[in-house]
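New to this. Comment on this protein:
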Amino acid sequence: MRRRPPQVVRPTRHGRHGRMGRSPVVRPPLPPLENRYEKFDLTVGTAAEFLRDAWEELRDVRFEIADMPAASDPEGIPRWLADREGHRIVMFRIPIERLTHVPAVDDLHRRMEVEACVFRAAAEYLNRDPWDLGPERFRF
């Protein structure tokens, strides 16, 4: 008759595979490289650069980002402010991100909605239709 080898009893501090737990030296996972503000800023910046290259009237206009408008409007919460006298367009991040209805909640559709708001704000600044701002971009 064959004898079985004695079973090794491991202390409770060992895991299932006999390894010890992680030491406190190991840091928690790093935060994501891009947060929502950085993604919003990048999207507004790329759309603004496209519009500045296409329209000479927008070359001296500053595109700024603010979290919320300072005062509420009786007609609703504005998504942007087109200030012709100050030569600036202010995009309000929180109303654009939270109050616009995106059909599918993914990064592509969120980016498209932010770009559409930038185009509408620039169109309001120029007193034009948003579809007139990038006609070459939409021709196939």
Summary: The mean pLDDT is 81. The first strand starts at residue 62 and ends at 66. Helices lie at 36-54, 93-99, 107-126, 130-133.
